[in-house]
Amino acid sequence: MSKLGMEEHTTFFLKFLGVLFFLMTFGQVGQLAYCWLMTGGLLWLALTSGLGFSHDDSVAVLAAVFGLRAIPFIGKRLMTLAATYPLALTFRFASKILPKYTIDEAQFFSCDGCSDEVAARRKASLQELSEKWKKKYPKCQEFSLELKKMISDLRFTSARCFPAFNGVVQKYLDPSMALDRTEGVDVVDIDENSAMDISGSYGVNVCGYEKYKEFIEEGWTTAKKQGLFLGSLDKTVLDNIARLRKISGQPEVSFHMSGTEAVMCAVRVARFNTQKPLVVTFGGAYHGWWDGMQPVAGNERLPSDVLCLKDMSNLSLKVIEARSSEIAAVLVNPLQCFHLNQSPPSDPVLSSNNRKVGPTPGYKEWLHRLRDTCKQGGIPLIFDEVYTGFRLHPRGAQGAYDVKADIVCYGKTLGGGLPIGVVCGPTDLMARGDAKKAARVNYVIGTFAGHPFVMASMNAFLKWLELPETIKSYDVMHANIDNFIKTANAKFQEKDYPIQLTNWFSVWSILYTKPGRYHWLFQYFLKDAGVSLSWVGTGRLLFSLEWKKEDYDRLLERLLSACEQMQKGGWWEEPKANIKAKLGVEIGTAVFKNVLGLTG
Ligand SMILES: *[C@@H]1O[C@H](CO)[C@@H](O)[C@H](O)[C@H]1NC(C)=O
After folding, report:
1. How far is CA 236 from CA 231, 258, 450, 455, 462, in A?
2. What is the 8-class DSSP label of residue 84?
3. In percent, how much of the chain has pLDDT > 70?
4. Close Cβ partners of 304 (under 8 Å, ≥ 6 residues apart)
5. What is the per-residue DSSP string for 525-552?
6. What is the dihedral of CA 548, 551, 557, 558, to 10 degrees?
7. Cβ–Cβ under 8 Å, residues 262 and 411
8. What whole-number distance in Å separates Cα of residue 370 and Cα of residue 285?
9. Sign of the C-alpha dihedral, residues 128, 132, 137, 143?
């Protein structure tokens, strides 16, 4: 019957295959898979040899046992899938398919189907701006040209528009700035041009640039005796800890060098001390550049131990409840409230008028429900307050929304102008060692943690934060901002400019009320009008406590002057073609060319 006559060796070969499978998949297949295989094997042995079942009956019993066991498991997985932020599922495929493409100069000015007259006006406007900038920013442009050869980060951040337009825009305009100094709410570049700063230095500038000069000065006065010395804590550190305990409402404090590191620490201590694998985040939230906490865009090693769920969704709460035995922590960045489940509102993703940002009603109630769900499931709630701590309120989002987190991460402005990351939490969650097992250690440390100069400038910041006039200044700022937003929006409407401002505390953004392919250009005209933005452009803007009524008025004048330039240049002419359809065709063609290998 058998050609090779191997009947009596079948068992040997089956075992051989089993061992090979184990060796070749070890470390790549989860331990759970081996456990299931092993359990299946043992059950099989017990049924066939021990209980004398026939092979066919044993298969049926095994199928029934595993089927029953799988029901709750599959139920939870399906629920998770339904609650998952959609981009977290599709991004890894989209990022492989979406090609780069360039709109060349012949199409650049008329890619919304405009008339020749409008295209000519646009071209003249861009040329005029380009010529003007050559005269206005000669030193800045030379500086940036040199620097770009050597700093990849700068090449990345100097691309400030919808990527397809980059090629042409970079030929005409370079928005890079080399800064000489800050002067109140203004920054002055090396060509001596002054601009009002609404970039907020990536969120650090809460107090106003002049304040940081004071903090740093004061810090240096205290710290210069020590200079570099690391590894010994002094009275300043103790004082900082006492103040941070009060602000965070948590007994333990851990110092790090950046907000990203603070998040790394918080997630690690939560996983270590709960001995559970998963961390929940909410779609669209940013938690620093560590790839362990970037479940969607921005990195190649998409983490498999992060559940990225939909924000403000009751289903997400159900998933957290059902899978509480696997979840080490729920991580929240309250800034998420401003662009709920949207991609970061930067100009490079602005392809039409597709920016939806603004404060979300009901966010406070959601945070409280999330707080309750975490408490019931025994899951630590981590607030990533790197951005929001001290910006929303002297006690951050915890203060602004009256909700208490278990672990709080701070960064940015807390260092009084120097780099810092801080984690505050309860003793049991902050432990770096296992009370019962000598070799289980959570190695979370940092060379520069507790640097005397940083500690001293932080101390200056924390002392300032407690002053009664500081606390009052937050209310004054929020009233000024509300007033500014109202006045500005009324003005834009009156002038029929297609923009609208929206804010959430001192974070604000520019919305476009009509479709258009050139809205991203607004940031270039803003720069020209003397307004300094960060590389994400008009999507995320910031005010500081330093801004006075006169400053807001001065800013509005500049916004209006930039609007006038946009209007005059024909950039806001009503599109003649359907932009979404055009985009679809452009991207579809590029994908097609890419698949055929027609582009590089
Ligand atoms: C979510 O649950 C809360 C409280 O149980 C309820 O008030 C709210 O209406 C629910 N939201 C939706 C969208 O079903």
Report:
1. 14, 19, 10, 7, 11
2. B
3. 98
4. none
5. HHHHTTEE--TTGGGSEE--TT--HHHH
6. -140
7. yes
8. 16
9. positive
Question: Do the Cβ atoms of 164 and 349 come closer than 8 Å?
Answer: no
Give me the phi and psi of 62, to 5 degrees please.
-60, -45
- Tokens read off for 228: 């570099």
Q: Could you tell me whether strands 194-197 and 186-189 are parallel, antiparallel, or unpaired per DSSP bridges?
A: antiparallel
Tokens at residue 371, please?
Answer: 């707080």
CA of 367 to the centre of ligand 1 (A): 13
pLDDT of residue 155: 65
Q: Quick check: 265 and 256 in contact, CB under 8 A? A: yes
Report the half-sphere exposure of 360 (CA within 13 A, side-chain side).
Answer: 20
- At residue 515, the pLDDT reads 92
Q: What's the 379 CA to ligand 1 centre distance in angstroms?
A: 21
Torsion sign over Cα 292, 298, 299, 300: positive
pLDDT of residue 27: 78
Number of neighbouring beta carbons within 10 Å of residue 89: 13
Q: CA 413 to CA 454: how far, in whole Å?
A: 11
Report the distance separating Cα 536 and Cα 160, nearest Å.
7
Residues 251 and 395: their CA atoms lie apart, in Å, by: 15
The first and second tokens of residue 68, run together, are 């029953």
Separation CA 562–CA 538 (nearest Å): 12
Residue 105 in tokens: 């100069």
Give pLDDT tens digits for 186-198. 999 999 999 999 9
d(C-alpha 148, C-alpha 401), whole Å: 43
- Give the per-residue pLDDT at 157: 66
Measured from the Cβ of residue 53, the count of other Cβ atoms closer than 10 Å reads 16
Tokens of 537: 């452009």
Neighbours of 124 (CB within 10 A): 14
Phi, psi of 245 (to 5 degrees): -65, -40
CA–CA dist 444, 86 (Å, integer): 33
Bridge partner list, 309: 84, 282
Distance from residue 313's CA to the centre of ligand 1 (Å): 8
Determine the distance separating the centroid of ligand 1 and the alpha carbon of 339, expressed in angstroms.
Answer: 20
Measured in angstroms, how far is the CA atom of residue 277 from the centroid of ligand 1? Answer: 28
Residue 287 CA to ligand 1 center (angstroms) comes to 27
Residues of the chain predicted below pLDDT 70: 1, 153-158, 598-600
Q: Which amino acid is at 174?
A: D
Q: How many CB atoms lie within 10 A of CB 257?
A: 19
